[in-house]
Every structure is written in structure tokens, then in C-alpha cells.
């Protein structure tokens, strides 16, 4: 069973950038389609982006508008999310997940504990 640990969150000013990473252990990320979700207090978990096993296909939530880029490094067993032009509305806990490339969080089998991203105005 794969374990996922996110890192890279923090406090950033509006317009800034962050690079989130998700390190896997107990399994190889190359075996899984993977995705990023986010959840703000009181909101449902929201799809950010997903990527297939080879990295040849990526999918994004409509709100990303070209600001976010998902990538994976199967050799390093990591999943990444580059987030640019951040807005206060992007403030949330960001989670990586494995097992699907769907936009529905219920299709994923494995989850990290999340990393907080806070964007100040």
C-alpha cells in the first residue's frame, strides 16, 4: 500500500508561486494515475489536476486557467504541482491522491495528509 506525503505548502502573497510535491513510499507512483485536490474550510474537496501513469495525459480543474501545472517524476517517485499567479481564493489544504485520473475524489484510493497553502491579498 502506497503512502503519500505532501510538502511545499506555505504562506505566499497574491501573484506569487508555490511548488507542491508529493513523495510516495511503500509503492511506486509509476503504478498509479494520480491527482491533486484541495479543500477549503466548509467546502467540498475540489479537483485541481490529474495525470496518467506515463505523464502523457494531464487534466485540470476549470479554475486553474493555465496557472497550475501537474507533473510527475517516476524515477524519483514523486508527483508535483506548480502553482503560479496564486490568488487568495486558492487558499486551501492541498492533497495528493493515487489510483485514478478522475475529477471525482471518490475514485481515488490513497491520500496524503495534505499541505496548507495560504495566499494573502
Descriptive keywords:
single chain; 121 residues; mainly beta; seven-stranded mixed β-sheet; four-stranded antiparallel β-sheet; 11 strands; 0% helix
Would you give an account of this structure?
The protein is built from no helices and eleven strands. With 121 residues, it is mainly β. The mean pLDDT is 97. The chain has strands spanning 3-7, 10-13, 18-25, 34-39, 46-51, 58-60, 68-73, 78-83, 92-98, 110-111, 115-120. The termini are far apart. The chain is globular, with a radius of gyration of 13 Å. The strands form two sheets. Strands 2, 4, 5, 6, 9, 10 and 11 form a seven-stranded mixed beta sheet that branches. The protein has a four-stranded antiparallel beta sheet with strand order 1-3-8-7, with no helix packed on it. Helix content is 0%, strand content 49%.
Write down the overall mean pLDDT: 97
Strand portion: over 45%
Number of helices: 0
Q: Which spans have pLDDT < 50 for at least 5 consecutive residues?
A: none
Helicity range of the residues? under 10%
Strand count: 11
Characterize the main sheet. Answer: 7 strands, mixed
The first-to-last residue Cα distance is 40 Å
The succession of helices and strands, N to C, reads EEEEEEEEEEE
Instruction: Using the alpha-carbon principal axes, give the shape.
Output: globular
Task: Please tell me how large the radius of gyration is.
Answer: 13 Å
What structural class do the secondary elements suggest? mainly beta
